[in-house]
Description:
- The longest helix is centred in the last third of the chain and has 18 residues, at about 35-50.
- Helix content is about 60%, strand content about 0%.
- It is built from four helices and no strands.
- It is flat, with a radius of gyration of 16 Å.
- It is mainly α.
- It has helices at about 1-10, 25-30, 35-50, 60-65.
Amino acid sequence: MEISLQRHFKWIPDPRTGNNPSHDTFSRVFMMIARALFERCFRAWTAELRESLQGLESAEEKDLI
């Protein structure tokens, strides 16, 4: 599962490297973004993500053993 996530979500930084932005950095960036525009873009992105995951079935650990 980890390898699959690494392939599909390369833009997510590896938390083990220590190169992740701090919460202060995120706070400063979010303060500069127009809230209405961010909300509209975020909603569009999550709708697209939801559509791309249609038909994907989840598996529980107990089903894999």
